[in-house]
Amino acid sequence: MILAFDIGATYFRVGLGNKSGFKLILVEKSQKGSKLINQILEKIFEFNPKKVSIAIKGSLDLKKGKILNSLGLRIKNFEIVKFLERKTKKKIFLINDCLAGALGEKIYGSAKEYENFVYLNLGSGIGAGIFVDGKLLVGKDGNAHEVGHMIVDVNKKMECTCGKKGHWEAYCSGIKLVEFVEREIGKKLNLTVEKFFELRNQEPFKKVFKRFVEFNVIGISNLINLYDPESIIFNGGIILNNKFLISLFKKQVENHVFNRMPKFEIAKLKEFSPLYGALAFAFKQ
After folding, report:
1. Which tens digit of pLDDT belongs to each residue from 150-208?
2. Contact, 68 vs 141, CB < 8 A?
3. What gap in Å lies between CA 130 and CA 127, rounded to an integer?
4. pLDDT tens, residue by residue, 115-145
5. Bridging pattern class, strands 21-29 and 11-18
């Protein structure tokens, strides 16, 4: 039996499964720092699985089983695999949540028939999992997913959560969007991400929403020109709560890409794609 975790900046999801089936156990808020590690340990001891597979937000060193930097979770330079294996005596697998999301959609979801696709998460952060010619791109450390740190604004007005400027995530992620709106309007606002989308056709938000769309169009167009996918499979809270964005992005992206346009679609597994991917990743090891 495999205990699978999907740990994002907002939600902590846990499932238990084998090749015969999979069951969601719980969804709760993610803790931060050492409290998150205790949150993981508690569930491992409670369910006593044979193997554990963790899909987690952030940059990783997969060879060392190490979280290099997970800003939203306040974990840095931590050898999580070695630590958990020592504490639990279980086999632990580690993968980035967006890579897991792509794997989940490939094995169980929208991408079963695709050899080339981009799984794009627009949520608290921005990341991707990319399949090219049937193979998941991983990278030298396991960080081929960090598309949110692509530069979309050469004027570099906004600082990203990573400390660099001009990144896609600095303007369009759930964590930074309200800050971007406030900067563009020039004052602090009693605003949420949800409220911004409700007010998107009213002044002074209309102009900012146009900029938000433009930055996303730049990022998506770059992904299409780089990877020539059959489909862009969208996931994440910003998309799942505002599905109208997909057709809006598609209409504008068509004017910017050199490669043939792919399909634009929503992840079949929705917010559970990374959890299913964590399970699939453990099966493949």
Report:
1. 999 999 999 998 999 999 999 999 999 999 999 999 999 999 999 999 999 999 999 99
2. yes
3. 10
4. 999 999 999 999 999 999 999 999 998 889 8
5. antiparallel
- Per-residue tokens: 183: 């900067």
Residue 214 CA from chain centroid, whole number: 20
Residues 115 and 92 reside in one and the same domain? no
Query: How many helices (H) does the chain have, and how many strands (E)?
Result: 10, 13
Residues 116 and 256 in one domain: yes
- Look at residue 16 and give its three-state secondary structure: strand
Which amino acid belongs to residue 16? L
Measured between alpha carbons, how far is 247 from 266 in angstroms, rounded to an integer? 11
Measured from the Cβ of residue 138, the count of other Cβ atoms closer than 10 Å reads 17
| 146 and 17 fall within a common domain | no
Q: Name the residue range of residue 60's domain.
A: 2-96
- Residue 4, helix vs strand vs coil: strand
Closest CA to 179 of 278, 188, 80, 279: 188
CATH of the domain at 72: 3.30.420.40
45: CB partners within 8 A, 6+ apart: 88
Q: Are 93 and 209 in contact (CB under 8 A)?
A: no
Q: How many domains would you assign to the chain?
A: 2
Cα–Cα distance for residue pair 231/263, rounded to 1 Å: 4
CA nearest 172: which of 127, 128, 216, 207?
A: 216
